[in-house]
Amino acid sequence: MKFLTFSLAGPLCSYGETDRWDYRGTAEMPTKSAVIGLLGCCMGLPRRDKRLRRLCDVLQMAVRRDQAGTLLTDYQTVQSPTGVILNAQRKPRGSTIITPKQYLQDAVYQIFLYGDEGELAMCASALNHPRWVVGLGRSCCPPAVPIVPELFEAESVVDALRRKVDTTWLRWIWEKTMMAHKQGKNLAEQGLTNRLCESDVRCEVEYSDSFDLNVFTGAYQIVRHDAVICADENRYEDRRVIACVVRREAVCF
Length: 253
Fold this sequence. Notes:
By secondary structure, the protein is an alpha+beta fold. Helix content is 21%, strand content 34%. Helix 1 crosses helix 2. The protein starts with a strand and ends in a 6-residue tail after the last strand.
């Protein structure tokens, strides 16, 4: 079984799913629409391109959270050049509104895509040679390390999720830890201790009737509203995933 994997790591990321209008939250795990959007960006596909929907349909996704981020809320002020902001019913609601936006700080995820092998190879090539600048859920969230794709073989999704950690982002975390140490900062307050040795990590895997749930620890099904229909019109549909905990190969840098 062939997989395409790559890391998403950065100082800030945000993966909105169901929030609209003023409040823009973030999910704890990357959404499939965000990953498909990132691939579309690398391929140079506009939002209305039907190939985005095809990518969503032919590729399945699993996510491994290698490092949980801390939540950050940014309160932004929006003003209208005409002096009036309209609501969804086109009724005036004032000239200034506050729009809280949530981000995750220093979160690290490993993405695993599987399905059509031709599409996987095309995605790997696009990630190596992106057409446009990519972001981690939002354009204002650039990745901290290069997004380096890797195609590999594994017996199953569980075996893929258990493979060792990508050390590219680990080097980044280690350098950040050493810099904080040299500056005399408390590492515990900076949230930099006991994060490089975690072996039991949370994962999400797209649901399939062929899965034996007994191979996943603490597995349960949830519904994510993040399958792309039309990104330009903000139209998405439900996607069933398995939330679970997987013991990966522990790495201490």
